[in-house]
Amino acid sequence: MKRSFYLFNPGIMERRDNTLKFTPVIVNEDNEEIKQQPRYIPIEDVAELYAFGSLRANSALFNFLGQKGIPVHFFDYYENYTGSFMPRESLLSGKALLAQTSAYQNKKKRVELARKFIQGAAWNMVMNLNYYNRRGKDLQDIIDTIKRLSNTLPDAKAVDEIMGIEGNIRQAYYAAFDIILDDFNMGSRTKQPPENEVNALISFGNMMCYTETLRAVHQTQLNPTISFLHTPGERRFSLCLDISEIFKPIIVDRVIFKVLNKHALSTSHFDKKLNKCLLNEKVSYT
């Protein structure tokens, strides 16, 4: 079964027949590179690669990955998503592109679609909160607030109004995190960089959800740059931002609640420096 591979260490990636060879590299105090024990990954086991450390590779490797339909997602030092290598699109459709563009240009249709994304997200947030509310966490007031805000979405006549309602819904939802979590506090939502463990997990999980959505969209005839909730912009796949809004509560947030409350992760899995908190390489062994 194919799965995702996460490369947290800097290193060299090469092709060896139908196998990927990854050699981690460390730099000593004399600025000398020391190659570590290489790891071999059969290509048929790889769904996609996530590169969090510096990755050295040549065009032959990317040609090979492109032929096998394997994307590579890149992240910077602060674990912010910076871009992806995506295999050539094989499902291009002019008819689908015209229909998607037409839906974006039609204000009524765009507002309708944008509303659906947030209604789906709010529904899943409430599902999460109901689960913990039934298990002794006092979340009913927050649930009622999100439902009340969600009920105002049909009255919104513009995407900006919908985004404003979404912001209020998410603010109420994030207030529940400190009630749900037993040993960690989130406080307010901080990013670029995140300031504590919970915010670090949210940022990391949201990026994973975004890249998984991007991979799924590339397997359809949809154009990932034409979106309805988020404004289409240069150098970003904004449709993936739209779609991932629905899934973040049930994929990202549920996992965060589970791994922290079951102590699968601890403070040792994070590096805190000044006002930033990032996951460290220990996570790859968890």
UniProtKB/TrEMBL annotation:
Mn(2+) binds at residues 166, 230, 245. Its cofactor is Mg(2+); Mn(2+). Pfam families: Cas_Cas1. It is an enzyme of class 3 (hydrolase). GO terms for molecular function: DNA binding; DNA endonuclease activity; hydrolase activity; metal ion binding. Keywords: Antiviral defense, DNA-binding, Endonuclease, Hydrolase, Magnesium, Manganese, Metal-binding, Nuclease. Gene3D superfamilies: CRISPR-associated endonuclease Cas1, C-terminal domain, CRISPR-associated endonuclease Cas1, N-terminal domain. One of its GO terms (biological process) is defense response to virus. Its EC number is 3.1.-.-. PANTHER family: CRISPR-ASSOCIATED ENDONUCLEASE CAS1. CRISPR (clustered regularly interspaced short palindromic repeat), is an adaptive immune system that provides protection against mobile genetic elements (viruses, transposable elements and conjugative plasmids). CRISPR clusters contain spacers, sequences complementary to antecedent mobile elements, and target invading nucleic acids. CRISPR clusters are transcribed and processed into CRISPR RNA (crRNA). Acts as a dsDNA endonuclease. Involved in the integration of spacer DNA into the CRISPR cassette. Belongs to the CRISPR-associated endonuclease Cas1 family. Homodimer, forms a heterotetramer with a Cas2 homodimer. This is CRISPR-associated endonuclease Cas1.
